[in-house]
Amino acid sequence: MAEKTFEIEIITPQGLFFSGSVSQLQLPGVMGQFGILTNHAPLLAMLEPGVTSYTQGGSVTRIVTGTGFVQFNNNHGTVLVEVAEKPGEVTQTDNDLGELSPDTREAKLLKQAREKLAANKE
C-alpha cells in the first residue's frame, strides 16, 4: 500500500526553503508541538521558534524554524517562518540574531532549538 502524502512548502523571507510531498509534519506551535497528517482538517496556526520535522519516504528530516505561521487546507501546507535551518547550517549566529535581541524569548527558543538538533546529531 502506498504511503499517503501531502504537499508542503516552507518559505522564509529569503525564499523557498523546501517544497515536496511528505507523509507527516511536526511543528512547534505557540500552544505546543502538533502534527499534521494527510487529510487533516483545515488549519491556521501560529508557530514559535523550535524544531520542525517532516517525513518523506520513511526518512525524517529535522530543521530549526523561527516564528511564523502554518496554513493547511486540501492536503497542502504552507509554512511561513522567519528562519529555517538544517542542523549545522545556522543562518544567524547567537551573536547575530538579526532584529532579535539575544535576551528575547524568541531568540532564546531559537538557540534552544539549535542546541537540541546539534545534540541529536552527535
Would you kindly provide a brief summary of this structure?
The chain is mainly beta and 122 residues long. The protein has one helix at residues 105-121; strands at 6-12, 15-22, 24-29, 32-37, 43-47, 50-56, 59-65, 68-73, 76-81, 84-85.
Shape designation: globular
Number of distinct helices: 1
The description of the largest β-sheet is: 5 strands, mixed
- Ends distance: 34 Å
Unreliable runs: none
If you average the pLDDT, what whole number results? 85
β-sheet strand percentage:
over 45%
Spell out the key features of this protein.
single chain, 122 residues, mainly beta, ATP Synthase, domain 1, 5-stranded antiparallel β-sheet, 1 helix
What does this molecule look like?
By secondary structure, this protein is mainly β. It is 14% helix and 49% strand. The protein contains one helix and ten strands. The longest helix is centred in the last third of the chain and has 17 residues, at 105-121.
Topology readout:
Layout: E1 6-12, E2 15-22, E3 24-29, E4 32-37, E5 43-47, E6 50-56, E7 59-65, E8 68-73, E9 76-81, E10 84-85, H1 105-121
Parallel strand pairs: 1-9
Antiparallel strand pairs: 1-2, 3-4, 3-6, 5-8, 6-7, 7-10, 8-9
